Amino acid sequence: MYDVKVERTSAPKQKPLDESKLGFGTIFTDHMLMIEYDKGQGWHDARIVPYGPIAMDPAAMCLHYGQEIFEGMKAYRGDDGSVYLFRPQENFKRLNSSCERMCIPQMDEELLLESLKMLVELDSGWIPAAKDSSLYIRPFIIATEPKLGVKSSDSYLYMVLLSPSGPYYPSGLDPVKIYVEQSYVRSVRGGTGMVKTGGNYAAALKAQDEAHEQDYSQVLWLDGVERKYIEEVGAMNMFFVLGDEVVTPALLGSILPGITRKSVIEMLRSWGMKVSERRISIDEVAEAYKNGQLKEAFGTGTAAVISPVGELKHGDLVMTINGGKIGPVSQRLYDALTAIQWGRAEDPFGWRVKVK
Amino acid sequence: MYDVKVERTSAPKQKPLDESKLGFGTIFTDHMLMIEYDKGQGWHDARIVPYGPIAMDPAAMCLHYGQEIFEGMKAYRGDDGSVYLFRPQENFKRLNSSCERMCIPQMDEELLLESLKMLVELDSGWIPAAKDSSLYIRPFIIATEPKLGVKSSDSYLYMVLLSPSGPYYPSGLDPVKIYVEQSYVRSVRGGTGMVKTGGNYAAALKAQDEAHEQDYSQVLWLDGVERKYIEEVGAMNMFFVLGDEVVTPALLGSILPGITRKSVIEMLRSWGMKVSERRISIDEVAEAYKNGQLKEAFGTGTAAVISPVGELKHGDLVMTINGGKIGPVSQRLYDALTAIQWGRAEDPFGWRVKVK
């Protein structure tokens, strides 16, 4: 048993009254988790405290040099009141892999899981019951040493925030419109594209803002070297159904190894479908479209689960996919994944972790 | 006149007693500057307050998505007690260009300069008088909206910190050893390499840590596409003296447009020297070395001014430059630039700005 001190709030906040208006990541629960790191001492002082502002030295390195990483996961309320996590061990494994690339000392994954369960259980009253709503979980680590020389920090803070959230896309499973980004680049091999660090997301804001101005919801990133191979879309991994093959870009160092991506691949294979992780160029997608072989396209991510793409624009070519409607593979994946996540179905893969 | 409120500290800190032990960016003065931004209101509430921790919501976007930028400059104490800044307008112009790329609302450059002068004058007693020491100035902007959806923030905080600092490299003008980085990539065209944002520095930590382990002080970055063209070194721009030509990589979108870089180019040209801003491959440098034409190599940056490179390693090839000693061009540039900065020489370029 790990030693996690708990200081309960003396002033519980009002919970959201209308669960249909939760939004995403805007409301926070009564408590948060903190673990500190100091050089020579290691990770120490795990504690759950009332949610509130933290005192930060304005010279803290995370504010200047972006030495920060995060994870994203969810807690789900089952019909019988049970609370589930989905493959949380995978998130903590990836957190440590992000730590390694970003020069942050790794953490004990068992401590991470145990302390997360304590926090979620304490604030389980905040998990919404409305359909497609869940408790979004945000673990993150920031560099806190107050020093302006560029180097790895000697002190860090790990925190977990909880946010009752509605669907990431309020329009739900309605297919989104995206376009192929031709000016900006998200990441390149040798960079940080395969870890969840702030800089990747900051670099992507400009393209995303420009997409929104043109009424597109996201951009599809191409590789930074040849500018032709598909990387990922917004904050999601990308899948294409080409004839009877499901294709997703291989993990070659510049895209995020998504946990929903991994689950989708395993699930499709368990259904006997052919899934290829390989390089796929935008030209191949356009060619398949012209030949009538581009059956479906969808993004995968923790926040949206499955996000079907109804329109994919590449320069002057506007590809309307499956008549702009969600396709059978996307729908089946969404139904099967969410049924496991919310405890409505058997869990043959052993992905679900019960909190209580 | 801009309205900048001033709240003086009631508990001034002890100033460093031994100016030879200042280090870089570890000590902060009595006051700091803050300006806030809120959507619909613009930048507001410019104020100088006692230096201290700020209260930050743990969901503030800068801690998750790295939407943050910074600048670096210095205040110099002249022999007669005058206080100077060096081309501060250039820093604020670049700050606004960083804002533009990173989706942060731009600021009034005149307000930035006026409020900086007020802060520096208030804490001018902290400017060290020791040789090569100065008051390092850190303006920065962080995204503060407490929200976990990935988007541009609706609120920001601009701050300026002041730090009395010794030379960036304690060994001073002693030439440094660097090697050509072959695994990691700092940035790629279409990314954020040309702006001062946290993610660029976070991405570079791993290579820097590995360089230190091998007793090298920095790495020389190659371009992310062809992996052969020279980009920059650590946090500095790079110059090579090849025969009688001084060459520095052109600003093609992935390297930082350094203000020392710009000043060095202008100064060399004023001396009648040939300076080329162009693509330069590591093979060309190695070829010049073998032909005896690689006369000098040096980095330029605000922190170090001029940092001569004594050894440049590329795979198995170890290039010892100018016998491992500082060369005449590097030395002349250092002397001329620092003489202008510290007010010891005429300022034919009009680069110096007097604070008081």
Which key features would you list for this structure?
homodimer; 356 residues; alpha+beta; D-amino Acid Aminotransferase, Chain A, domain 1; D-amino Acid Aminotransferase, Chain A, domain 2; nine-stranded mixed β-sheet; 7 helices; globular; Aminotransferase-like (chains A, B); BCAT_family (chains A, B); transferase (chains A, B); pyridoxal phosphate (chains A, B); Aminotrans_IV_CS (chains A, B)
Secondary-structure blueprint:
The structure is a homodimer of 356-residue chains.
Chain A: E1 5-6, E2 31-38, E3 42-50, E4 54-56, H1 62-65, E5 68-70, E6 73-77, E7 83-86, H2 88-101, H3 109-122, E8 134-143, E9 155-165, E10 176-180, H4 198-213, E11 218-222, E12 230-233, E13 237-242, E14 245-249, H5 259-270, E15 274-278, H6 282-290, E16 294-301, E17 305-314, E18 317-320, H7 328-341, E19 352-354
Parallel strand pairs in A: 1-3, 10-11, 10-17, 14-15
Antiparallel strand pairs in A: 2-3, 2-9, 5-8, 6-7, 6-8, 7-19, 8-9, 11-12, 13-14, 13-16, 16-17, 17-18
Helix pairs in contact in A: 2-3
Keywords (chains A, B): Amino-acid biosynthesis, Aminotransferase, Branched-chain amino acid biosynthesis, Pyridoxal phosphate, Transferase
Family (chains A, B): Belongs to the class-IV pyridoxal-phosphate-dependent aminotransferase family.
Modified residues (N6-(pyridoxal phosphate)lysine) (chains A, B): 196
